[in-house]
Amino acid sequence: MITPLRAGNSLRLAVVALAVAASSCATKKQTASTVTLKTTTTPGGTTAATATVGPAGKKEGIKKFADLVGKVKADTGLFSTYKVDGKYYFEIPDSLLNREMLVVTRFVKTPVGLKSFGQQYGGEEVNDQVWKWERHDKQVFIRVPSYSVRADSTSDMYQSVKNSNLDAVLAAFDIKAYNKDTTGVLVDVTDMYNGDVAAISLPDNIKKAYKVSAIDASRSYIDTIKSFPINVEVRTLKTFRAGESPTDNTNAALTFELNTSMLLLPKTPMKARLMDARVGFFGQAQTDYGTGAQKSEVTAYIHRWKLEPKDEAAYSRGELVEPKKQIVYYIDPATPKKWVPYLIAGVNDWNKAFEAAGFKNAIVGKVAPTAKEDPEFSTEDARYSVLRYFASDVQNAYGPHISDPRTGEILESHVGWYHNVMSLLRNWYFIQTAAVNPNVRNAQFTDEQMGELIRFVSSHEIGHTLGLPHNFGSSYAYKVDSLRSKTFTSTHGTAPSIMDYARFNYIAQPGDGVTRFYPQIGEYDLWAVKWGYTYFPGNKTAKQEKEMLDVWTKAKAGNPLYYFGRQGTSIDPRLQNEDLGDNAMKASTYGIANLKRILPNIEKWTFQKGEDFDDVQSLYNEVIGQYNRYIGHVTMNVGGMNENFKTYDQTGPVYGFVAKNLQHDAVTFLNQQVFKTPTWLINNAELSKFDNGVVIGRIKAVQVNALGNLLNPSRLARMFDNEAKSGALAYKVSDLFTDLRPGIFPAGKPDQFQRNLQRGYIENLRLFLNVDASASFPGATSVQLANYGLTPINIAFSDIRPMVRAELTRISNSLPSGGDALTSAHYADLKLRIKEALYPTKPVVNVVNGAVGRFAEPEQETEVDF
Questions:
Q1: Against a cut of 0.85, is the pTM above it?
Q2: How far apart are the first and last CA of the chain?
Q3: How far apart are CA 187 and CA 202, in angstroms?
Q4: What confidence score (pLDDT) does residue 842 get?
Q5: DSSP assignment, residue 598?
Q6: Helix (H/G/I), strand (E/B), else coil: 534
Q7: Which of 757, 725, 308, 297 is closest to 543 using CA atoms?
Q8: What's the angle, vertex CA 55, arms to CA 51 and CA 61, rounded to 5?
Q9: Per-domain residue ranges of the chain
Q10: d(CA 214, CA 195)
Q11: Which CATH number fits domain 303-497+516-537: 3.40.390, 1.10.3480, 2.160.20, 3.40.1130?
């Protein structure tokens, strides 16, 4: 879900792009004129709101503390809080002024039917921000510090960085009173929390979607403010005037309950650990002017929990030691009870990984306490990490975390668990294993079967909350034939990392005896946790720790079990979602063989008395979707490059082209399994139960889109690059055209699928001649684009057009004539299409953007986080 990025080709610039979107809202002046909001737009387009909080009209003077508060009892904690005549006050001690505090706002309750914006259910995060309360004369300000640039306080650059990194003012408050010993001040926070300050209010995307005009103060209120030793929790109900509603427009409003946690950050920040592109961790980057380098340098820190041994001496002796503070995840009380043990097991499974880092009992899943057991416990409280269960038809789950922006220390996490993820698990587990797994040949799984799948997903999501991103390169470590071994899979699962998108074992064949079909916490996961969480005694700097970790990393280099492959690039065929094994052609051949076994038995294996055929239709579509995944896995080999991040002191290339024979094998697979009509997908006995004339067209679309994806300009650009660098060792564009011809134009009379495919081939080639796709994506450099597989190419000045012209001419000259009326018309049509491509009568179309994008997209599938 959240993916590390690499800046340039330097490992020192390896940074992460966090998919934690901080929504900013433009707001208007409050109706009651008590909160003045000013919006500003930065050069990058970010809108920010600041608030000046105070009574309208003439200002009141500073009162005596006793006169203002009277006999109202304080709710003591981080700040002592008071409620007086409907107003809420914070007593801010001088000792906490200028201390950094993490502020996290979450939904508590939301309207039914909200559109999917990434946050729409109770428990999901709306925003997080760091605040500092600062006193100036008779006012208190909330300042919002930035951590994008830094310099050590001992550096000559420190003052210069401070001068160009001024903290923004979010809100201003008049001091209402001084406390009894004048060591603190009292401010009225009612209007800020009850208002529409962007940092603690409705996100801008929902406002825009439902045409929100303003907050309605008459229908909004502060529910509770509670203070605890290191945090203050504020629960509010906010009603917004809205032009649209998810359910009933007559209300002309949207109402939400929100909770804002203000959590004191450690006075002494945790020691940061520098990132390494060779080991996968989420992280954060900043420009550091104090490193001593002769340039501004980007440094990046990993996200991790703070784990320190209770007994440092025993830890140093190599004994397993409990941490001073255990990582605890609570299960949402709204979770169906039968799934709770499996979710907890998914959390606890990570203890074996922490043992690799020298800790025992480092992490635990627990049932959330009841109100009777702990009346102060709240699932929205930022002190607690919670697995939240959503009554939703979304087929997904996700595992975010919130970290200290100064050091990367993970402070809490709220895993999002959508109820309908079970539907996805059932469908995929059936489609990928039913050929060899009789236990899934039912309309519904047993609770034990579903529970084990839930445990697997729980472990994956908890991995994200520990700082681990997806490792798309992990599954490549296992040989395809190893995944047909009962002994191997029982021990190792389907990949060395549960953080890969290595789902279920579609490779195992009938008779292999395989009984374990899904991933587990594996070799890579143990290694990554050891790398990220091992405690180094003494007062070593982050740079000194990195030098020690470099030794570990180089020792693992070249071993595929410990390889990290980033998510987000389409350049390396090893780094794909939903794939298994070290050879996509071989693995996909096994997978298709299993689909051929499953498809004719869908109705039989999912029989439900008295039910219609919706489930048959759904699973039939899943078969086509799975088939399409296999096609994508194979296609990535053509024009592919392997990416292996290295440092100066490591030998071998960082980037190397996929071997010529593998690229040839990939095209051979496509000819045999895709371009040759997949008649096995046309099962009339099954189709007659639900298909009203769309499946045949969908199969044709799969074929043509696969061809369009193969002829991607970026792919051809890399093939030309390979030819220039490798000569005869390269798989060339001319080789691709030669290999494709017998697949697209086989001998004999073409059927309707082949005719459709031949037209698709001509049209794809025609685009290269009739579309000027020489522009690039605005704001992105060619290096940045190539990083993600969008290799730029200026088609008009490349060798593509000469090659395409020659190929079209060759096809036109080889087309037969005659035959029956339909075949004759088809060939005549192809010749006309080729003529129009070679000698266009219409002007060339100029593509301003998307020059390196696909000419034809493969079928889209639902993105899931786990």
A1: yes
A2: 8
A3: 24
A4: 75
A5: H
A6: coil
A7: 297
A8: 115
A9: 24-274, 303-497+516-537, 570-860
A10: 10
A11: 3.40.390
